[in-house]
Specification:
Elements (H helix, E strand, L loop, with lengths): L1 H28 L6 H9 L35
Length: about 80
């Protein structure tokens, strides 16, 4: 039983060490990740500063021909 406990303790220690290494790598790479919501806002062109026309912003600023439903999917498509 003592050797079994030592084997179990060693394997758990190794598993925890590898888990901590993974978490630390993910933590360091966190600022490089772009999450779905952020990607979607960029895709729709909604990631820029919003200017309210009532507060002096121009309504023509919203007339953007490049603005659409997104480049990755067509609305209502089944893909």
């Amino acid at each position: 039983p003592a050797s079994l406990c030592a084997i179990l303790r060693e394997s758990e220690t190794r598993a925890l060490s590898r888990t901590m290494e993974f978490v630390n790598r993910e933590k360091e790479a966190l600022d490089l990740k772009v999450y779905y919501q952020e990607r979607r806002l960029q895709d729709l062109g909604l990631d820029s500063e919003w200017n309210n026309p009532d507060e002096g912003g121009s309504a023509d600023a919203y007339a953007d021909d490049d603005l659409g439903f997104g480049q990755s999917r067509a609305p209502g498509s089944l893909d």
